Amino acid sequence: MRTQEDAIIHDCFSFLEKSNKHTNLVMAAIYYRRNKRNAVDVVACAENPTRTVKVAFDPYKDTAVNQRVCNDNFQYLEEGYQILYMPIETHLSQWNDINNKSPEHKDGLQKYLHYCHQHGISKNLIDSLTASNITDIMPMLHEINCDYAIITSMDIEKISIVIGYNPNALLPYVVWECDVNRKYGYRNGSYCSTKKGAVNAFNSRCREHVDRTLNMKSSCLISRKEKGDHER
Prior knowledge:
Elements: H1 4-18, E1 26-34, E2 40-47, E3 54-57, E4 68-69, H2 73-78, E5 82-85, H3 88-100, H4 106-119, H5 123-130, E6 144-145, E7 148-156, E8 159-165, E9 173-179, E10 186-192, H6 195-231
């Protein structure tokens, strides 16, 4: 069953394809947001191969694709839009732009970095799909949850163990676990009054997950071996 998001993407591509004037434009990004009337605002951005022409359009309101100039992508994110569609080529351009100049829209940049984090857009992925060697921008991400800045993390399979710090909190340190992409939020918080306590809680939580992972994988290997021996 096609979702509303799928329908928006389809309508944006269809609108661009039907344009007779800009046949060389390709879709660079699609943004959407819910407005106060609970309707959907859409901004689709298209550009030519050299990125010298960039236009924005709404397939439900505009009559042509060349009526508006595409704004800074981060500006749309600051205005409450979410990324609905963005091909890897646009991510490559975004990362190059960020590396070459400091973006004007700082909050929008952070929203974009969070999107990349949640959707697995990384240096390795971009390099592998575009034959590039781009400078990693993810260290620019300011990860914050409940006013605690995430200051370190450890990834174990699909789980991350993180330490958060808030100097103004009664208990300034917290250890959480979450998915690597942070998709389902932070959970099982252990709040600590000292850095030493946080480090101990962090190490303990990491060991628990490592032990659990090793035990699970060992059990799987033993089961496979026993099954193979039985079949022989």
